[in-house]
Design brief:
With 649 residues, the chain is of the alpha/beta class. The chain is built from 23 helices and 22 strands. The N and C termini lie far apart (89 Å). This is GGDEF domain-containing protein.
Length: 649
């Protein structure tokens, strides 16, 4: 039986250590402090004879005979089950309602231990609180107990024990015990809790109940024996899914249809979970709707990753079947994040974070699929998050540096210019190349601040080389610009200000934008590019040939340089024994000829061998860039190359 007690826990008394004895047995025991007797203590016959001589309270001090008769009549006629208990815990008198509740005549209850009749001694807390009232150390005690009714049904009873007044000083203190049937109230509370813990649309457990169950499972996992094989240790699994395109269904067909679809999805998920439970022995499965179009299937004591991935496959297969809803045939897919791990050391928050991350991967990988949690991929994500959170302060702390890669004339091998490449000297991860953080900077907007620093530093360095080598032709500096810099900042004003500060001529600055960023530019970006071109700054399209490749835009954009993507140049290899790609050579030759007809110069990226350089030279490519000439190096090394012999490898 279970129940709850009300009030502070007393420190006196002896915890129950033995089961209650049958009511027909009698034992001899000496109660401590003349206090209440546990169910296994003696019930002296004097308790029965006392009850026969007393009224409801066992005493008549201060009452007239008429008043006593009235009180006794009211006590016996009351519909609320009541009993009078003496200081030793024996029932002195019980009314008929209490006898009816316990299935015995009221007279038979006299002399019985109240704690035995009402299950008050099965747990320490309840027993001690009850005992404190009997000893006069506590003013009230209340608890809830589940009792067995004589007709066989269970009922919930609220038991209250309070001291009685009116007994003579010579008599021991007595208490009034009342028992209220609260089964209806308990049932109502359970119904309300069910409504509170379940989703009204799908009838599934809701987010609150799901997390309550998850926390309970992780707090009290099945017994784990380290001597058993690892697969027999307590494990937990979770399929966290989101319907793809559900918002469009709600928006076009209405929320009523959307709700019907959610209910149908819930039914199929429940079937999948039940089928999985029938195939795999182990813990139970909980299907819950977490909100919107998000569902979860919790697998307690899972058998391993294979069970969870099989469940995910069955869910996808079930949801791919069309839904017939009130004459409408709908198709829906889902993305599922799958997490399976040992329960030990797992927290609800950690499990849900892993599931949410994995669900995001499933959507990013193309939707309508399941993805298994990958610790290595997650570590990369965490690293990326760490970089994102420290990127802006890193610019202010001066953690970035620039290296420069030569741009060499293909005809003579002479150094013509350099491309500035940013590096992040991260205090934790070491030197990071641009591909580790530039995309992050574009996403969070810090590329504007970083790009402005790169532009100013590169122009200042180019001007310093020019001043240090006045007798040599000045080098042009090529700087990469993200499209967000064009949208989120006044790039034209920034360039003009930096050129004025450094004294670098506009014709010595080349700004590189990727093909996907330039092609299709209109409005503000196009006006910005045109203004920069009018200023004398050269505009280059980086990685040309891998994006939109819309040649119609070349005649309308203020572009002066095309940088061919290295993927085409790799098809020119001879030295490593691989066959060159005739198609790549033909494409490069056609692009070079087209660029020259449009008045553009061409730079080839990723030139690594002399054979590639020779082929590009014959085709007519203007400048080259790659490891054949030099890797990206510090500015001091570039200074040593100015005016030196050709860089042809």
């Amino acid at each position: 039986m279970s129940g709850t007690s009300e009030g502070p826990r007393a420190s006196a008394g002896t915890a129950p250590g033995t089961p209650a004895a049958p009511v027909t047995e009698r034992h001899t025991a000496v109660p401590a402090e003349n206090g209440p007797i546990r169910p296994d203590s003696a019930r002296p016959d004097s308790a029965r004879t006392d009850s026969a001589r007393t009224g409801p309270g066992g005493g008549d001090a201060g009452f007239t005979a008429s008043e006593l008769r009235d009180y006794r009549a009211a006590f016996n006629a009351a519909t609320l089950p009541m009993g009078v208990v003496d200081g030793r815990g024996h029932v002195v008198r019980a009314n008929e309602a209490l006898g009816g509740l316990l299935g015995a005549p009221a007279a038979v209850l006299a002399g019985r231990q109240a704690c035995e009749l009402l299950d008050l001694a099965t747990d320490d807390r309840t027993w001690h609180a009850y005992r404190e009232v009997l000893l006069g150390r506590r003013s009230r005690f209340r608890c809830t107990r589940r009792l067995k009714h004589p007709d066989g049904r269970s009922l919930w009873a609220e038991i209250t024990v309070v001291p009685m007044t009116g007994a003579s000083a010579a008599e021991s203190a007595r208490v009034l015990l009342t028992v209220a049937d609260v089964s209806d109230r308990r049932e109502l509370q359970e119904r309300l809790r069910h409504l509170q813990m379940h989703d009204p649309v799908t009838r599934l457990p809701n987010r609150t109940l799901f997390f309550e169950r998850l926390a309970s499972t992780l707090e009290t996992p099945p017994y784990q024996d380290d001597s058993l094989p690892p697969r027999q240790h307590a494990r937990i699994g979770l399929c966290y899914l989101d319907l793809d395109g559900f918002k469009a269904i709600n928006d076009t067909l209405g929320h009523r249809t959307g709700d019907r679809l959610l209910a149908a999805v819930a039914a199929r998920l429940t079937d999948c979970a039940e089928n999985d439970a029938s195939r795999n022995a182990g813990g139970s499965r909980l299907v819950a709707r977490l909100g919107g179009d998000e569902f979860a299937i919790l697998v307690e004591d899972s058998a391993g990753t294979q069970e969870l991935t099989d469940l995910a496959r069955s869910v996808l297969a079930a949801l791919q079947q069309p839904f017939d809803l009130a004459g409408q045939r709908l198709s829906v897919s889902a993305s599922i994040g799958v997490v399976e791990r040992t329960a030990a050391g797992t927290s609800p928050t950690g499990l849900m974070q892993a599931a949410d991350t994995t669900l995001y991967w499933a959507k990013a990988d193309g939707r309508a699929r399941w993805t298994l949690f990958d610790p290595e991929r997650n570590a990369h994500r965490m690293t990326r998050q760490s970089l994102s959170s420290t990127l802006r302060p890193a610019v202010e702390r001066g953690e970035f540096t620039l290296e420069y890669q030569p741009l060499v004339g293909m005809a003579d091998g002479v150094l013509r210019g350099v491309e500035a490449l940013v590096r992040w000297n991260h205090p934790q991860f070491g030197v990071l190349p641009p591909n580790r953080f530039v995309q992050i900077a574009e996403e969070d907007g810090s590329i504007v601040q970083l790009g402005r620093w790169v532009l100013r530093t590169a122009c200042r360095q180019a001007r310093r080389w020019q001043l240090d080598h006045p007798d040599e032709p000045p080098l042009f500096i090529s700087v990469n610009v993200a499209v967000r810099q064009v949208w989120d900042s006044d790039l034209v004003a920034d360039v003009a200000q930096i050129l004025a500060e450094t004294g670098l001529a506009p014709g010595l600055l080349q700004l590189e934008l990727t093909e996907s960023a330039v092609m299709g530019s209109g409005g503000r970006p196009l006006r910005a590019l045109q203004a920069l071109s009018d200023m004398g700054v050269r505009i280059a399209i980086d990685d040309f040939g891998t994006g939109y490749s819309n040649l119609a835009y070349l005649s309308r954009l203020p572009v002066s340089v095309l940088k061919l993507d290295g993927a085409f140049v790799k098809g020119f290899r001879y030295e490593d024994g691989t066959h060159p790609s005739p198609a790549d050579e033909t494409i490069v030759e056609a692009m070079v000829q087209l660029a020259h007809r449009l008045g553009l110069t061409v730079t080839a990226e990723c030139v690594e061998t002399a054979g590639q350089a020779e082929r590009l030279r014959r085709i007519g490519c203007d400048t080259g860039q790659g490891w054949l000439y030099s890797r990206a190096v510090a500015p001091e090394q570039i200074a040593g190359l100015i005016g030196s012999r050709p860089l042809e490898g």
